[in-house]
Specification:
Number of helices: 2
Strand order of the largest sheet: 1-2-3
Largest sheet: 3 strands, antiparallel
Distance between the termini: 60 Å
Number of domains: 1
Bound molecules: zinc ion
Structural class: alpha+beta
Helix content: 10-25%
Strand content: 25-35%
Order of helices and strands: EEEHH
Length: 99
């Protein structure tokens, strides 16, 4: 028995990342509560949708997938480094460029 339920098609097949067409999160106070997944089963070709409790969500099912527009850890780190390297004069310039 697996501890992570994952997503099962009605035919019994366990849905893999490459079969996921779309996914999204339902937020409550900025915390994800449910994960919405739309998939097409590669065995029975059926389209399906499923809501998964976020606490039971196995993120590895989407491993290898890089949705457009999503920020990865590297980008966050670079951004944090840039913020740290900022000098007061940079902020002045930024403020001026925005007005
Ligand atoms: Zn199926």
């Amino acid at each position: 028995m697996s501890s992570t339920p994952g997503i099962l098609c009605s035919c019994g097949r366990r849905i893999e990342s490459r079969e996921v067409l779309q996914h999204g999160y339902f937020m409550n106070h900025w915390k994800p509560v449910w994960v919405f997944v739309k998939y097409r089963c590669s065995r029975c070709r059926m389209l399906g949708e499923q809501l998964v409790d976020y606490s039971q969500w196995d993120g590895s099912i989407l491993e290898g997938e890089t949705p457009a527009g999503e920020i990865d850890d590297d980008e966050v780190r670079r951004f944090a480094e840039q913020l740290r390297a900022l000098r007061p004069s940079d902020l002045d310039n930024l403020a001026r460029s925005l007005t």
